[in-house]
Amino acid sequence: MIVAIDGPSGTGKSSTSKAVAARLGLSYLDTGAQYRAMTWWMLANGVDVQDPAAVADASGKPVVTSGTDPLHPQISVDGTDVSGPIRSQEVTAAVSAVSAVPEVRARMVDFQRRTAAAAPAGIVVEGRDIGTTVLPAATVKIFLTASAEVRAARRSGELNGAVSVAATREALIRRDAADSGRTTSPLAKADDAVEVDTSELTLDEVVDRIVALVEQRRAAVR
Ligand SMILES: Nc1ncnc2c1ncn2[C@@H]1O[C@H](COP(=O)(O)OP(=O)(O)O)[C@@H](O)[C@H]1O
Ligand SMILES: Nc1ccn([C@@H]2O[C@H](COP(=O)(O)OP(=O)(O)O)[C@@H](O)[C@H]2O)c(=O)n1
User: Fold this and answer.
1) Can you tell me which residues bind ATP (predicted)?
2) Structural domain range at position 23
3) What's the rounded Cα separation, in Å, for the pair 185 and 85?
């Protein structure tokens, strides 16, 4: 059972994916955290993130590892837990440039496919290109959306309003454009993905809907 959950920032991918995995007894992989971890390492090591050749050259150096327990997600670089630092504004502003570099994506995608193949009962994998590129044969594909206003309010709320909703909205829109416009596996809905607009739904409603889709699919293949 492979569940691919894609969509832009703030649509609820992480919260939903963790809850769906926990409810169904599946593993969980946050691929955005991996691109963030790579970006954190580049910034910490003085790599010019706007120089794709420099990023490509350095991309083999850090060892990024992810835990797959939805109740205790973990992300580390060279053995150090970076779950806090990868959420900084600095990393958020730089991650789209790093994730657009094909050498970075090749390493990450290989790791993501191996992780999915090794999951004992199956896995929920969240990101931008899971249904289109990483795991195109996923059993269930979901594409989450929500209005830019709702997404910005959610993200700004997480930062306790430290960054205004308007500034957060601008930054989200810029990152969506970069992620959707890149050449190598851009953010996109797979043709066979089910789109769920989460703007007016509670987290529980989104989770219920996805769990129901997975159970329907399970019953169909039995
Ligand atoms: N359906 C929902 N309704 C309200 N808030 C939500 C919903 N889904 C997620 N959130 C909240 O929105 C924020 C962003 O969610 P997150 O799961 O991190 O999104 P993403 O991984 O797509 O960026 C979090 O604070 C989360 O608690
Ligand atoms: N499968 C993926 C997942 C994330 N990413 C990149 O990683 C960034 C951070 O992803 P994220 O899921 O942590 O972002 P948020 O939704 O938390 O804001 C995205 O803006 C993309 O640039 C990607 O390119 N491909």
Assistant:
1) 7-15
2) 2-221
3) 26
